[in-house]
Recover the amino acids of this structure.
């Protein structure tokens, strides 16, 4: 299921208006996409988003390393 409504990020200002990050939600996930590639969207469940935002807010060391550590593994 994909969202019916997308909201443009307030950090996507300026320019010609075509390069924007957009957020949408469904009951089960948060969706993120670039406006110039709307068919390609990332989706994450609430628990994963909560953990990710907590790590950013608390400046958890190694957050980037932990996200990229499994880059060579199959999902």
């Amino acid at each position: 299921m994909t969202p019916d409504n997308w909201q443009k990020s307030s950090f996507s200002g300026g320019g010609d208006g075509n390069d924007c990050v957009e957020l949408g939600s469904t009951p089960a996930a948060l969706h993120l996409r670039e406006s110039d590639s709307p068919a390609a969207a990332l989706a994450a469940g609430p628990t994963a988003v909560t953990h990710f935002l907590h790590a950013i807010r608390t400046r958890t060391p190694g957050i980037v390393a932990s996200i990229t550590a499994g880059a060579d593994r199959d999902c």
The beta strands are 7-8, 21-25, 30-34, 37-44. The two ends are 20 Å apart (CA to CA). Residues 18 and 53 are 26 Å apart (CA to CA). The chain has a mean pLDDT of 76.
